[in-house]
Design a protein that fits this description.
With about 280 residues, the chain is an alpha+beta fold. It has a single domain, classed as Cathepsin B, Chain A (Alpha-Beta Complex), CATH 3.90.70. The protein contains six helices and nine strands; from the N terminus they run βββαααβαββββααβ. Strands 3, 4, 5, 6, 7, 8 and 9 form a seven-stranded antiparallel β-sheet that branches. A two-stranded antiparallel sheet has the order 1-2. α1 packs across α2 and α2 crosses α3.
Length: about 280
């Protein structure tokens, strides 16, 4: 994965005992696209889900600049900062908030020794996932079945984005996005305009995905993108001609190694190529 890596006003409130930022205003399977052996949100939320949710603090954002290979590392740092700020880390959370560039670079170095790339300068979805788990909760959360964050591949844009909304509601943690067709890291820390029930299921137990939402709050760690707490519409993220902000299918091909933290043997790129890829909090 290559490493190249407008704000809106918000007010603090508390939902289900957690401090969460709600921007002003509100409105929103069988075809989930998630590989059958790997599922995300298996629990129903314990409180009513808000129409608008945004987990964000401007003082805790770490840009990747001037390290243009550190998009995933800077995203790890800011995502964990937000989790610490909202106290949504849960049992075993150990991260201390920091915007240090030295910490960003240390995370990238760790990612590079724990990802599945065969070259390059940045990291890949496995490096990003592993760093979130390791720095956030420790080495015991690296293996399958113990993770707080995992990487997921979705066959459709709708399935991917609706899974992200469910994860935000369920965990109050940001969701990583493999942007630029897999060449960059961005993350979603909120949504707005939710209508319907994101957790409704059909008789077979699959999410119906019949709910709607208007868009997301997104942050890009690359300063020149000018996208910190950016409000981006559902259709814009799908269709915009600005390729910096269109969620596209993953086409990077440099992750040729097997994932040592997941049973079985396969080239990691085969998990993601041609799919919409997210780094999703599962608890």
């Amino acid at each position: 994965m290559a490493g190249a890596l407008r704000a809106v006003l918000a007010c603090a409130v508390t939902i289900a005992g957690l401090p969460v930022f709600l921007a002003s205003g509100s409105s929103a399977s069988a075809a989930s696209g998630v590989p059958p052996a790997r599922t995300t949100d298996t629990r129903a939320p314990t409180a009513a889900f808000p129409a608008t949710l945004n987990i964000f603090s401007s003082s805790l954002v770490r840009y990747q600049d001037p390290n243009y290979s550190a998009c995933t590392a800077a995203s790890v740092q800011t995502m964990l900062n937000f989790i610490s700020y909202t106290r949504s880390g849960g049992s075993g959370f150990r991260w201390s908030r920091t915007v240090s560039g030295t910490t960003r670079d240390a995370i990238l170095s760790w990612e590079r020794s724990h990802d599945t790339m065969s070259g390059g300068r940045g990291s890949d979805p496995h490096g990003w996932r592993n760093a979130l788990n390791y720095y956030g909760w420790g080495s015991a959360t690296l293996g399958q079945g113990s993770r707080v964050y995992d990487d997921f591949s979705y066959s459709s844009y709708d399935a991917a984005t609706k899974a992200a909304v469910r994860a935000l509601i369920l965990t109050r943690k940001p969701v990583g996005v493999l942007a630029w067709a897999g060449a960059h890291a961005q993350f979603l820390h909120g949504y707005y305009g939710l209508s319907g029930d994101p957790f409704a299921k059909d008789s077979a137990g699959n999410y119906t995905n019949k709910f709607t939402f208007s868009g997301f709050y997104l942050t890009d760690p690359l300063r020149s993108s000018s996208a910190v707490n950016m409000r981006i519409g559902y259709a814009t993220l799908r269709d915009t001609s600005n390729m910096r902000f269109r969620l596209r299918r993953y086409v990077e091909n440099d992750s040729l190694l097997d994932d040592p933290y997941t049973p079985g043997t396969r080239r990691s790129v085969d998990e993601w190529y041609g799919y919409f890829v997210l780094i999703v909090p599962v608890r």
